[in-house]
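Re: the request from the purification team.
They wanted to know what the chain is likely to look like in 3D before they choose a buffer screen. I agreed to run a prediction and write the result into the notebook, where they can find it.
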Amino acid sequence: MADPAARVSGRVTVRIVPKPWGHELIWAATDRYVGKLLHIRAGHSLSVQYHERKDETIHLLSGSMIYRVGDAAGAELRDVRLKPGESFRNVPGTVHQMEALTDCDVLEASTPDLDDVVRLSDRYGREGTNAP
């Protein structure tokens, strides 16, 4: 049965999750959606990853990044230059990676499947895990 407090309007607790590339600020988390702000430090990148269930859209607020994307695991990734104000949607199965050329702030809106991460490669040694 769902938590009755989950259906109450009001202030929410914001969580900051440290990452080797910067941090995530989770500002919304419900059983229907999640809202995050990702701060990626210049020269760092997230894993080459995909999600089995999670559907997400990212929006570059500030900075300059290379967004690598492929249609499926094993597919060649193509570089997409995102500029501030541009967004990109990843449906489940889309392989993707963000690399910050400068410090970047990225909004992410997604389904609530936070543990649904399949890491194909990772410069911080987290391949295949759901570790932070």
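For the purification team: The domain at 13-121 is CATH 2.60.120.10 (Jelly Rolls).
Please add any questions underneath this entry.
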